[in-house]
Each structure stands twice: as C-alpha cells, then as structure tokens.
Amino acid sequence: MANPYRILTLNKISAQGLKRFPAESYQVASDVDLPDAILVRSQVMHDMEIPASVKAIARAGAGTNNVPVAKMSARGIPVFNAAGANANAVKELVIAGMLLSARNIVPALQFVAGLAGDDATVHKLVEDGKKHFAGIELRGRTLGVIGLGAIGRQVADTALALGMRVQGYDPEITVEGAWSLSSQVKKAQSIEELLRHSDFVTLHVPLLDATRGLIDASRVKAMKSGSVLLNFSRDAIVDSDAVLAGLHEKHLRGYVCDFPSQTLQGQAGVVTLPHLGASTEEAEENCAVMVVDQVRDYLEHGNIANTVNFPTLIMPRESAHRLAVANANVPNMLGQISSALAGAGINIHTMMNKSRGEMAYTLVDTDSPVPPQLIAQIEAIQGVLMVRCLPLSE
Ligand SMILES: NC(=O)c1ccc[n+]([C@@H]2O[C@H](COP(=O)([O-])OP(=O)(O)OC[C@H]3O[C@@H](n4cnc5c(N)ncnc54)[C@H](O)[C@@H]3O)[C@@H](O)[C@H]2O)c1
Ligand SMILES: O=C(O)[C@H](O)COP(=O)(O)O
Q1: Residue 117 buriedness (CB in 10 A; 0-12 / 13-18 / 19+)
Q2: Whether residues 318 and 297 fall in one domain
Q3: Cα of 283 from ligand 2 centre, angstroms
Q4: Which residues form the signal peptide (predicted)?
Q5: Looking at this predicted complex, what is its ipTM?
Q6: How much is the pTM?
Q7: Which of 60, 101, 324, 337 sits at a 20 to 30 Å CA gap from 123?
Q8: Which atom of ligand 1 is nearest to the CA of 204?
Q9: What pLDDT, on a 0 to 100 scale, did the predictor assign at position 2?
C-alpha cells in the first residue's frame, strides 16, 4: 500500500510515538498537504484553516483548549487526547512547586549566586543570610486540590504520602475517578470551603468557559492567610492581578505557576516555570504513543477511544466492509442509515451506536461493499456529519 495516510505534525512529537505509524502506509511530516490527521501539542489551532481532508485531530497531551473542538464536532471530526499520559510528570512538578515555595528556594538560589569573596567570607555571608530564607514544612499542612482528574488524584496521593492533609473539590468527578480517589481525601462542599482551610491550593481543571477566572479577587480573599496557590492548569484560570494584590498585601505567601506573563515577571513571591509540566522524556513518549495508537485505530478501523467530543466506540472487525458515520444525536438517524443500506440490498453484519451529548457515532459492518453512490446518499441524510468507508486492507 503506497502511503494512503498522511499525518501532519504541528509540534515536535516524540519519535517513540511516531515510529508506531508503519512507514509503508503512513507519511508523517510537519509539512504534508491534505492530511488525514493532525497531531498537535500546544500550538493554537483556532485561526488555522483545517483542510477538508482532515478526519481526526490528536492532542499529544491533556488540554484541548488550543483546538477548535466545537468546530470539529460540527464537521464530525473527533478530537483525541492523551488522557492521564502526562499526569505523573505534572504531579512531580507540582510537588517540586510546593517545595520551591515552602522553602524559599528561588530567592535562596539567587542569594547564593550573588555571593562573592573567599570561602571564609562566603561562609559568614551564608550563616548570616540564611535566616531570610527559613521556610515551612509540608508535613501536617493542608493541600486543597481543585479538579480530581488524572493529575489532581495523583497529586493528592503523593501529598498524603508526604504527611499532608488533603481536601478536594470536583463536582464533575467521574465514577471511576471517585473509586480511585484515596478515602483520606476530604470532600470540600465548595471552592470557598476548600480555600478557607488550605495552606496550599493546586488547580487541575481544564480551561473551559466555566473555569476561566475560577480564582478571582473574591476567591483570593477567601484563601487562608499565608497560603500558596499553584497553577499548572492554564493561565486564564487565575486572575493574575488579583493574586499579585494578595501577595503585595502579604495575604498570600506565594504563587507558583507554569505560565509566565508580563504581569508576573519579576514579582516577589511568584515562581514561574516555562510550561514544563509535561516536558519529561517519559510523558512526551507516553502521550505520543497513546495518540498515535488512537489515530491509527480510528483511521484504519473507525474505533474511537479517548476523545473530548465523541463517545467511546470500539467494535472488533467481523467483516471486510465497514462504514463509520458521525451524526447529530437526534431521533431516527439509525433507522435512516439502516433503511438506506437495506434499500440497496446490503446486509448489516454488525452495528454499534453510541452517543455523547449532541454527538452520535455508528459503526456498521456489512456483508458486501458499500458503493460510492450509497455513501453519498447516507451523507445527504439531514444530521449526518461525516461518513467514512473503511475496507479491511489485505
Ligand atoms: N502544565 C502542564 O504542562 C500541563 C500538563 C497536563 C495538563 N495540564 C492542564 O491540566 C488540566 C487537567 O489535566 P488532567 O489530565 O488532570 O485532566 P482530567 O480531565 O483527567 O481532569 C480534569 C478534572 O477537572 C474536573 N473539573 C472540571 N471542571 C471543574 C470545576 N469547575 N471545578 C472542579 N473540577 C472541575 C473534571 O471533573 C476532571 O475530574 C488539563 O486540562 C490541562 O489544561 C497542564
Ligand atoms: O495540556 C497538556 O498536556 C500540557 O499543557 C502539556 O502541553 P505540551 O504538550 O505543550 O507540553
């Protein structure tokens, strides 16, 4: 088979993942025309012209706020992500962030970098100066975790292992998430309750309309005096001016975040990192492997796992002929699709349909090939967003 699939990469994606695209059937590059799928990390795609050839977008990471998800849904295009694949990397940096702030490590390093003189002079300066950097310990302090998904749960577990008390807030926690959460994590009834009692507060929610500005001036005021805020989610979740006001008034001890900005640059009590949360060899590889496998399974078989806009639907192949249909989740779509097939004398071998919100997705294995004019007929059904014919290759 000569390169039937074309994959466009918008960011550097781990080679360990990309090598899972077989070279004989995939062309992968940062400049392919008419791509079948796009792989992306943090590049913002909102103003990008996404070609009609695109069938899938895969975010080799967790957050999909850089992808025009609603527009893709309207075109019947799934947006995959690597749910949980970088959670350990972020968790480790969050723990490092708590320690950086608790032990005043950044100003202490700056102090050491400025020391001059012979060893005896430096020793004296160190012993006189160290009192300015005395810190606090994590053990026995309370950590509040807002968002108990893949990252929040891991942060909670590690904080407990460090001897911290942990409380969490997540009104949309999944059943699986709730099962895997330690029973030692105390449930906060509201964000305000969590803020009132936490020495450290860490944010692990996606950037959505509902979470934009989640930590605003009133919530900064609601935080416990002397507490530290950590933001490894997205910059727009926190009102930076409100946090700076809290720091200037000595109401907050520190702000550790993964998103530098002009506002935060050089401010006392602020530690900013260059969006490093997921930048480890392991996380980059995990994310790439996960999304490459998902994209292959979707392009070749129409199977869907781990998207942010489609239902999960995986159907083993039982016939060489498969149709994949994305459609609006409204009545009688399945009836119309199966009537069209029956009208053309095509027998359905297996059919599965799932829905998620306004989106529905159907896989149909047929006993004989579906001719192009019938595909066009199904595409013309009102509410059908996308139809793909997926013959099993030899
Ligand atoms: N700094 C980095 O490099 C880095 C790396 C990975 C992820 N992230 C960010 O972290 C976010 C979370 O990642 P994840 O893998 O844990 O995602 P996840 O989907 O596993 O978890 C998100 C959790 O937030 C909860 N949530 C949603 N709205 C909420 C609200 N209003 N209040 C409280 N909880 C709410 C959800 O129910 C879910 O449990 C990503 O969306 C991304 O923005 C940043
Ligand atoms: O949402 C994510 O997974 C992180 O923000 C990581 O972004 P990156 O892949 O650009 O490092």
Answers
A1: exposed
A2: no
A3: 10
A4: none
A5: 0.99
A6: 0.96
A7: 101
A8: 12
A9: 55
